[in-house]
Amino acid sequence: MNLSRELQIALTATSRAANLSKNVFNSLVANDSVTKNDKSPVTIADYSCQSLVSLLLSKAFPSDPLVGEEDADVLRQSAELKDKVIGLVNNELSIPLKHGEVDGLDLGSTQQENTLLDAIDRGTFQGSSTGRMWCLDPIDGTKGFLRGGQYAVCLALLVDASVELGVIACPNLPVNPAQPDGERGVVFAAIKGQGAFQRPISQSNGALEPISMNAITPSTLSSASFCESVESGHSSQGDAANIANELGITKEPVRMDSQAKYCSISRGDGDVYLRLPVSASYEEKIWDHAPGRLLVAEAGGKVTDIHNKDLDFSHGRTLKHNKGVIAAHKDIHANVIKAVQKRHSAPAYTPSYEMDLFAEAPLSWQLCNSMNLRSRTRSIFQVPDFEELVDSHPSQILDEDEQTAIVEKLEKANAASNKQYRIVTAAFIVVQLTYLLTHLSASGSLINLALLLTPLPSLLNTLTSRDLITIRITHPHLKYIPEPRSHLLGVAASIVGLALYRNAATSRTLTILTFSAITEFWMRRSEKDARELHKLKYGQKSA
Ligand SMILES: Nc1ncnc2c1ncn2[C@@H]1O[C@H](COP(=O)(O)O)[C@@H](OP(=O)(O)O)[C@H]1O
Ligand SMILES: [Mg+2]
Prior knowledge:
The protein has about 550 residues and is an alpha+beta fold. The chain has 3 domains: about 5-210, Fructose-1,6-Bisphosphatase, Chain A, domain 1 (2-Layer Sandwich); about 220-345, D-Maltodextrin-Binding Protein, domain 2; about 405-540, no CATH class. It has helices at about 5-30, 40-60, 75, 80-95, 115-120, 140-145, 235-245, 260-265, 290-300, 335-345, 355-360, 365-370, 375-380, 385-390, 400-440, 445-450, 455-465, 485-500, 505-540, and strands at about 65-70, 130-140, 150-160, 160-175, 185-190, 195-200, 210, 225-230, 255, 270-275, 300-305, 325-330. The strands form 2 sheets. Strands 1-2-3-4-5-6-7 form a 7-stranded mixed sheet, sandwiched between helices. The protein has a 5-stranded mixed sheet with strand order 9-8-10-12-11, sandwiched between helices. Strand 3 (about 150-160) and strand 4 form a beta hairpin. The chain starts with a helix and ends in a 5-residue tail after the last helix. Residues about 350-385, about 395-400 and about 540-543 have low confidence and may be disordered. The structure holds adenosine-3'-5'-diphosphate and magnesium ion.
């Protein structure tokens, strides 16, 4: 497939969008004209870049649909935001085409408001498994953008759900990794079957230099380095550390935002990219992976999900049939997958709120409502004055101290109520144990005694608030049994026991174990909620 024109347009569009995003950063973020939590710069950069890239694509390939992260609804409702975006895009369009940029394409110096908003809305295409489609993340790594760290403008062309072309512009990545303080701003490109390349964003007519991954083999795997998300909510950093350990990797992980991770490993700055799901329900977005996946493959690597399945771009806007991402040199990919299967704990439970609650925005009444946190809080955490606390706040925004107070209250109330349930379970067990010990000769008594031991470890741990007994069920098949696994196994065994000994004592054992499993299930959910809240509020380290 000859995609040279597509490549030229994609390089121009992403490089120009990268310049535009830098202007936004320099004028709105670097000079501290906005507060840290104000997301407007990233919003402005996102819309402007999508508008610019989409406009160029629509002029060059009018019949190609576009899957983009944004739509223009918010802009149509805010004149101030809209004017800024229109101004920025027109400013970029008015810079004359340089040598090497798109030939034979009349950009027109400035564009009408509607044309630019419509360009953004072209990105609402829902995806397709057949035909051509472009896929755009105008600012990937929004957190990195705001931090002045890594972010990327990412564009891919898919044909029949296969990524044929990928281009990623990283405005803050050093051109030469050996000179981290030298020139920054690199654009990466790959065409299927034709290799992976990079060149400085500043050189629109410069040659595309071939890049490749470090030639790492199973015997040199321990010298590898891996990279992962900065955001612990996007990828489990704890599991990544265990996996690195399993592979004998001792180097500290390199954390960076966005698809700059795919770019880094493609040119050998690092070797393995791990994205390990922390939530069972999160579906990765196609624009977060399409170009990166091709780049790594063309640089000598292999990209799959954590179950070693190819990333499947044929199901609309998300990778619904994949979980996480593992990218590594093709010679070591299998070793990495093996370690992942051994050490990655499948997320068994999904918190009801998946947003980075406290980092994204102050905890507000609207947020509580939209995340169903209010009702969950009432039913699970049982904090009677939580609603009053939120309602009494006229601005419906809680400040830091109030957020802290809520988290502490949730944790305390949660721990107290769970302890009560466990005391009740423990009491049932003691009564039943006493009965069994005094009727040892009755049929099934010994089996019943053994079955009653299954909930004991977690009961003891909670009642003493210490990890007295920990049983890790790590077998790859068993780990997909939802928590509480030992309890569920106990219930299953006691059903078998009841089939063997149809007597009242065995029925009682089954009832107690079922009660214990159900209450344990709900308690673990609430404990996980409390832990997640804690993590969101205080960060991974103190969680
Ligand atoms: N719970 C989650 N798990 C995995 N990825 C998530 C996530 N929530 C958001 N993301 C995605 O992670 C991307 C950033 O990736 P990374 O963590 O590698 O920097 C975000 O892209 P945007 O920044 O474009 O919104 C967003 O699409
Ligand atoms: Mg993204």
